[in-house]
């Protein structure tokens, strides 16, 4: 026997800063939002120790604690939070269909997507061991903690070049570990890296291991041309090989760029499907900060409110 579909006014998919902020605004606008957390409630900040660049926390805050504050605020205004994953959608009709991992069918008048993006990693055990203990995927987030210390950045594209040049303003020496004999970064970013006196490039090099006891103390490299190994002493190790937006379930429905980031109307959160809005890192391949994600979560809720009001739903 088929299960009756549940009809909801506003569904929010994802539970990072974008999703929870959208929930606060949607709930206060009487949209009765239901937020599906996904498999990683709280998103990337749940594996982030110190957050010092989010306004309102003058002494800093642990990432999980901040996400708990976000969740409580969303619930305070009536958001219903479900610890489930949405794993299938159908945006072909005026009512948007979604299915949970337990195969519950949901019909939504408006959908706000805030599924985020996941940093790509090298896959080293030592990389996991020192995550938030010297290993990071965001120089803007964590570079402040390494002022006056030597650090390493791995990667050869624009992300790595941007991270290296940012860190070069804070650190006496930045080691850029590049797997090939040239950078993949854009011409202007290459020039910035090559012109920085305190950026040392290790060409044809791969990371074998992040070294240390309780925190990062160095990195062991392999030269893939000579097969020689070397160790560079650093206190911070930044992985900058890109991010993967968590948008696979929307393929075939929503417009994306070549790497999977959702396309929205410039300055808005509207997607190519009416009534579906995208916020946070799922549609932001430039800034990827908690505060910008929260801002677009607010925008998505306001866009959804106007859409539902125009339809006479609320």
TrEMBL record:
Catalytic activity: [thioredoxin]-dithiol + NADP(+) = [thioredoxin]-disulfide + NADPH + H(+)
Recorded GO MF terms: thioredoxin-disulfide reductase (NADPH) activity
Cofactor annotation comment: Binds 1 FAD per subunit.
Domain FAD/NAD(P)-binding: 9-297
Reported cofactor(s): FAD
Keyword tags: Disulfide bond, FAD, Flavoprotein, NADP, Oxidoreductase, Redox-active center
One annotated GO biological process: removal of superoxide radicals
Enzyme class: oxidoreductase
GO cellular component terms given for this protein: cytoplasm
EC code(s) of this entry: 1.8.1.9
Family label: Belongs to the class-II pyridine nucleotide-disulfide oxidoreductase family.
Subunit structure, interactors included: Homodimer.
Protein name: Thioredoxin reductase
Organism: Haliscomenobacter hydrossis (strain ATCC 27775 / DSM 1100 / LMG 10767 / O)
């Amino acid at each position: 026997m088929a299960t009756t579909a549940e009809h909801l006014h506003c569904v929010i998919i994802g539970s990072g800063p974008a999703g929870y902020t959208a929930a606060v605004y949607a709930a206060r606008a009487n949209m009765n939002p239901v937020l599906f957390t996904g498999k990683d409630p709280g998103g990337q900040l749940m594996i982030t120790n110190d957050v010092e660049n989010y306004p309102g926390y003058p002494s800093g805050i642990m990432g999980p604690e901040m996400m708990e504050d976000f969740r409580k605020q969303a619930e305070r205004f009536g958001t219903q939070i479900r610890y489930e994953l949405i794993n299938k959608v159908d945006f072909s009709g005026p009512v948007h269909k979604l299915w949970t991992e337990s195969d519950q069918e949901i019909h939504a008048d408006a959908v706000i997507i805030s599924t985020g993006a996941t940093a790509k990693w090298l896959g080293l055990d030592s990389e996991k061991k020192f995550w938030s203990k010297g290993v990071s995927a965001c120089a803007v987030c964590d570079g402040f903690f390494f002022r006056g210390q030597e650090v390493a950045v791995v990667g050869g594209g624009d992300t790595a070049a941007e991270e290296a040049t940012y860190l070069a303003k804070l650190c006496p020496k930045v080691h850029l570990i590049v797997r090939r004999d040239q950078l993949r970064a854009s011409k202007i970013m290459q020039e910035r890296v090559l012109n920085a006196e305190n950026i040392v490039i290790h060409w044809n090099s791969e990371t074998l291991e992040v070294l240390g006891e309780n925190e990062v103390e160095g990195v062991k490299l392999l030269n893939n041309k000579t097969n020689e190994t070397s160790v560079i002493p650093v206190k911070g190790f930044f992985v900058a090989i890109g991010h993967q937006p968590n948008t696979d379930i929307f393929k075939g429905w929503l417009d994306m760029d070549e790497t999977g980031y959702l396309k929205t109307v410039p300055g808005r959160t509207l997607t190519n499907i009416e009534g579906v809005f995208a916020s946070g890192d799922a549609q932001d391949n430039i800034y990827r900060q908690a505060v910008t994600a929260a801002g677009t979560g607010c925008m998505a809720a306001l866009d959804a409110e106007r859409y539902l009001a125009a339809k006479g739903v609320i």
